[in-house]
């Protein structure tokens, strides 16, 4: 890992005066660890690999040095081109990144554009006709623009990949390789990921030149200010118990996670019947709806937001007092990402997980192995309907945790294929690549529900036809989901 002298103030970085002025207006005083380590390295022009979770300040870590370097050599972009290309996995995250660039660059008349699915492409083509300095995009829509001759990548000087592991999970790794193949060899690349699986490490090695490596907040850590609770309930009682919980808890803003899009909509309807106002965001919602709901959630007009993991990627909202796992995730690292949505900016938070059945107890044991904590349990099940007591989690006081056991995931069958393909552990390009280039249909690939209930997260409903899988009474927990 690259070791640098950590600076304690944004003024110590020597950023251009217009950028420093914008930071003061944004009340940016003390850099976060990822910012303190990354900004000095990026200012020198070095490639950087950063391992950091969502919410650690990655956007400023790459945006500030890039804006400074743009000002050092301010040239007009060529038509249909950009100087800075930022790739991110979701529409929401892309929009937030662009907002940050525009905020930090408000005094330098920055030209920028956003390329995401779910909105007409013609408008995006017109926005880059004269060329822009900063382009933030999701991979599928970017390729659409390139293939339609609406965008040229030969002038890119700075490339940023944010949330690289999530892009791998969503099936974008082949698209990323295609995009990188069209970029100039001489460029600065900043590469960020919350985790570093084998495929991501290989991608970074192929893309970067002698990169500096920085890392903060290991994925196995959980914020100390978060109170974590496990409540065992009957599966049929989950909706009523959630409504009761939201009425009893001192909720400022609550973010409720479900595993599927269908499940998110069912939770919203159940809460409405209980007299609790809530709304949902997921892949089947239009981009306008998602933006409108997120704005209302930030403003406090909506106190309860129900989301799937992929749609929630990029939600950066202060004041989330509670995170509720209505469905426990089947990937342990996802649990850490979810609960990290609360307890931000020095605040405290509560993370509550509703557990029903042996399958979710298995997921819980995987999570406890990862975070090396036995979480306190409350049993609210109906007597006579209790599951068999789970085996105690094994923990190691020193060294590495016990090996994790994961549920298998079945990828969607490609159109015209005879059936689904089972992804390998690495989850790279061995799975079925998405075939529809339109970002609205490929941004969030279908994920089979471990319980087979409802449409799984990510499908837009028009790109593929699929059969809902039947419940697997003996779930295969030998493969890690891609």
TrEMBL record:
Enzyme class name: hydrolase
Domain Helicase C-terminal per the UniProt entry, residue ranges: 225-389
Keyword vocabulary terms for this entry: ATP-binding, Cytoplasm, Helicase, Hydrolase, Nucleotide-binding
EC number: 3.6.4.13
A GO biological-process term: ribosome assembly
Ranges of compositional bias, category Basic and acidic residues: 436-447
Domain Helicase ATP-binding: 39-214
Gene3D superfamilies: P-loop containing nucleotide triphosphate hydrolases
Family the UniProt entry places it in: Belongs to the DEAD box helicase family.
Listed name of the protein: DEAD-box ATP-dependent RNA helicase RhpA
The species this protein was found in: Bradyrhizobium lablabi
Lineage: Bacteria, Pseudomonadati, Pseudomonadota, Alphaproteobacteria, Hyphomicrobiales
């Amino acid at each position: 890992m690259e070791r640098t002298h950590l600076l304690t103030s944004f003024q110590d970085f020597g950023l251009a005066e217009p950028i420093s002025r914008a930071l003061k207006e944004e009340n940016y005083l003390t850099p976060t660890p990822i910012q303190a380590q990354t900004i000095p390295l990026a200012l020198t022009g070095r490639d950087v690999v950063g391992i950091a979770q969502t919410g650690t300040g990655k956007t400023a870590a790459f945006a500030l040095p890039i804006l400074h370097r743009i000002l050092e050599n301010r040239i007009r972009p060529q038509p249909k081109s950009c100087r800075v290309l930022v790739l991110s996995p979701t529409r929401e995250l892309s929009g937030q990144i662009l907002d940050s660039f525009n905020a930090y660059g408000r005094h330098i008349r920055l030209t920028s554009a956003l390329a995401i699915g779910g909105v007409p492409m013609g408008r995006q083509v017109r926005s880059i006709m004269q060329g822009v300095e900063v382009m933030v995009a999701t991979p599928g829509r970017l390729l659409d623009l390139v293939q339609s001759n609406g965008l040229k990548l030969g002038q890119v000087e700075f490339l940023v990949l944010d949330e690289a592991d999530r892009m791998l999970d969503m099936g974008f790794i082949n698209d990323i390789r295609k995009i990188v193949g069209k970029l100039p060899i001489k460029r600065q690349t900043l590469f960020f990921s919350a985790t570093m699986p084998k495929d991501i490490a290989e991608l970074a090695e192929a893309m970067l030149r002698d990169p500096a490596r920085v890392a903060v907040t290991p994925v196995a850590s959980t914020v100390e200010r978060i109170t974590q609770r496990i409540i065992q309930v009957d599966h049929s009682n989950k909706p009523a118990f959630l409504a009761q919980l939201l009425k009893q808890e001192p909720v400022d803003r609550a973010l409720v996670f479900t595993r599927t899009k269908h499940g998110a909509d069912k939770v919203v309807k159940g809460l409405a019947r209980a007299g609790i106002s809530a709304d949902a965001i997921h892949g089947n919602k239009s981009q306008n709806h998602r933006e409108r709901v997120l704005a209302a959630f930030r403003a406090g007009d909506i106190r309860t937001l129900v989301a799937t993991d992929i749609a929630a990627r990029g939600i950066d909202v202060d004041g989330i007092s509670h995170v509720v796992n209505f469905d426990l995730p089947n990937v342990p690292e996802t649990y850490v990402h979810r609960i990290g949505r609360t307890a931000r900016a020095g605040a405290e938070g509560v993370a509550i997980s509703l557990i029903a059945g042996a399958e979710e107890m298995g997921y819980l044991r995987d999570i406890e192995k990862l975070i090396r904590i036995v979480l306190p349990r409350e049993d609210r099940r109906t007597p006579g309907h209790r599951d068999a007591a789970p085996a105690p989690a094994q923990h190691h006081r020193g060294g590495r945790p016990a090996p994790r056991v994961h549920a298998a995931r079945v990828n969607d069958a490609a159109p015209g294929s005879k059936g689904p393909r089972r992804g390998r552990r690495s989850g790279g390009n061995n799975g079925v690549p998405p075939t529809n280039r339109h970002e609205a249909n490929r941004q969030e690939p279908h994920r089979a529900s471990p319980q087979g209930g409802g449409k799984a997260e990510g499908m837009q409903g028009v790109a593929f036809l699929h059969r809902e899988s039947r419940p697997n009474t003996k779930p295969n927990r030998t493969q890690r989901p891609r």
